[in-house]
Amino acid sequence: MARWEPVLEQVMRERSPRLLSYAVLLTGNDAEAEDILQDALVRAFSKGRTFENVNLAEAYVRRAIPSVFIDRLRTRRAARNAHDKQVVGLEEAVTGHDADGAMDVRAALGQLPPRERACIVLRFYDDLTVPQIAARLSLAEGTVKRYLADASARLAVLLGTDADWREERDTVRVVAPAKGGRR
Amino acid sequence: MNTLQERLGVVVEADAARFSGEEFADAWGGDVAGRVKRRRQVRAAAYSGGTMLAAGALVIGGVKLPWGTFAGPAGVGGVDCVTVTPSAAESIVYTETVAIEGGAASWAIPGRELEEATRYTLTYPSDRVERGVTVTSPDGTPLELEFDATGEATFVGEDGRVVVVTLSEGENSILTVVKSNANEVQASPSASADCVTPTPSPAVSAMPSPSPSPSPSTSWSDAQDVSSPFQCGFEFPSSVGSTGPIAVEAVEWFAPEAAEERIRSQYADPEDALLQLSGDPVPVLVFSTTPSWASEREEWILIGGDPAVEGVGLFGTSNDPAATAGLVSGVQFVLESADKVIAVPDFTALPSGVASQYFESNGRASARIYGLDLTVAFAACPGVDQADLAGAQAVAVAGTQGFDADGTIEGPYYAWRFITRD
């Protein structure tokens, strides 16, 4: 067995739940997230890397997920599938609330166009800067700024929050209620 | 109130609890591992410098590397004549001559990837001539090399490439030659009495390096069947054309700054810093397939790879029970003179240009590659002097081949466009 195989196995068995949930942030639905995680695993492990531990491997896979998500949007077929799934995901996302307000966030994310959603996730969840997001998603910085501005404004309405994506890291970007409902 | 960041964290935690890693691994583990294996096999069997990418980007360019400057496949250091077969000439992907200073030398051999983990390290202690040269693999395993009577030692790296280490006689230097794959070990260049090339040689001897054949008119295409514009000797019937339903639709020229901006936007890794542009305008190949041809197949793009050579490794043939449906396309730059391919890029070696590719969503699958420095990116075909490449015409070439699940292969089809500037 090649050296990468046990690491791949370990990543899938131990780390896939968090990786899948991260992918769901981007896709809005589980099936698309599973597809994306598979592609990200293939991408991360196909480059001849020698992962020293599962944490490093997980980091590579996690890093690949947004890129795979965007790349899939760029393909004709994937764009069509993503659109179809997005419609489903959005319908699923807006059907209700859960106790901790997570569904509100999911629903709000689901109403963003995919690229805006990816920018929001990378900015607010991964804590990346605009240049880093641009590099990660192969987008121009100006485009990222526009996506973040539009998406933040929309999230502010949907979640009843003030949103400022331009703040420095480690400061408040979007203020939202912790639980349930809209303010 | 919580920040959006905190709330996203809550969402991720909540979702993570819904998923089972065991179920995911059981459901998809075999498929994922199989895809990884196929890709790694394609890499290991990369043909004459072809390197495969499915997505993302690849550095192939004029790059100063931490371990030294890449010397192209035409060889550096001493130039003595060697017998060069076409396969041998294509197989040499990296050479480096290391001076022994203070009786010791230590250097690294880059791997296929620009990553520390894929490098080998050679050490040469001063007090054990021809014994004690040790290679350390990326995982830290040491191997002491055994030299033959000619002062040459060979080993095969875990990536399948052949590494030849030569101790120079009377000179305080060591030459390392890395060849593209183990299948070509028998074609290892060696000093030959039959060599007739009167190339002046520096004092260093027994330094293998490809040399031009006595007569430039010796045709590569006469010696073997050449059917692909990715190959040396292919003759272009026109400056723009194709053999099937694909096209090289355009070749753009970017200002260096614009090219760099686009390229850097594709890179988020530390090796970004290695990118160096020559300052000249950069040709950018824009390749696309027709919608009907792309269909619903899984699509792969090979940067620098001929789909007819590498596609089978991805999707299989009718004899392969694991054959799957897919579409493999390849894009590459070559140089031509008198309508014949006279040089091809060396992608597996370390780099001499920068390639980048992605799919558009405008209804066509497409890719772009950037030829950053055409004067250093290419290796002369056998029978062609490297010096003659300076005035050669660059050509963008592309190929595509389809695979059905029953192993039926459609194509390959090729397209090309001579690169001219307005």
Can you tell me about this structure?
The complex is a heterodimer of chains A (183) and B (422). Chain A is mostly helical and 183 residues long. Chain A contains eight helices and one strand; from the N terminus they run ααααααααβ. Helix content of chain A is 69%, strand content 1%. In chain A, helix 1 packs across helix 3, helix 5 crosses helix 8 and helix 6 crosses helix 8. The C terminus of chain A is likely disordered. Helix content of chain B is 17%, strand content 30%. In chain B, helix 2 runs antiparallel to helix 7. The N and C termini of chain B lie far apart (60 Å). At the A-B interface, helix 1, helix 2, helix 3, helix 4 and helix 5 of A face strand 1, helix 1, helix 2 and helix 5 of B. Strand 1 of chain A pairs antiparallel with strand 1 of chain B, so a sheet runs across the interface.
Average pLDDT number of chain A: 70
What would you report as the Rg of chain A, rounded to the nearest angstrom? Answer: 17 Å
- Radius of gyration based on Cα positions of chain B: 23 Å
Oligomer: heterodimer
Distance between the termini of chain A: 55 Å
Element order of chain A: H for helix, E for strand:
HHHHHHHHE
The largest contact between protein chains, plus residue counts on each side, is:
A-B, 70 and 64 residues
Please count the helical segments of chain A. Answer: 8
Structural class of chain B: alpha+beta
| Number of helices in the DSSP assignment of chain B | 7
Q: Which percent range fits the helix content of chain B? A: 10-25%
The structural class of chain A is mainly alpha
Q: What proportion of the residues of chain A is helical, as a percent range? A: 55-70%
Percent in strands of chain B: 25-35%
Shape of chain B: extended
> Distance between termini of chain B?
60 Å
Shape of chain A: globular
Using DSSP, what is the number of strands of chain B? Answer: 23
Taking pLDDT < 50 over at least 5 consecutive residues as the criterion, the unreliable ranges of chain B are 42-91, 113-117, 182-223, 267-274, 289-294, 348-365
Identify low-pLDDT runs of chain A.
75-100, 168-183
What share of the residues of chain A does DSSP label as strand, in percent?
Answer: under 5%
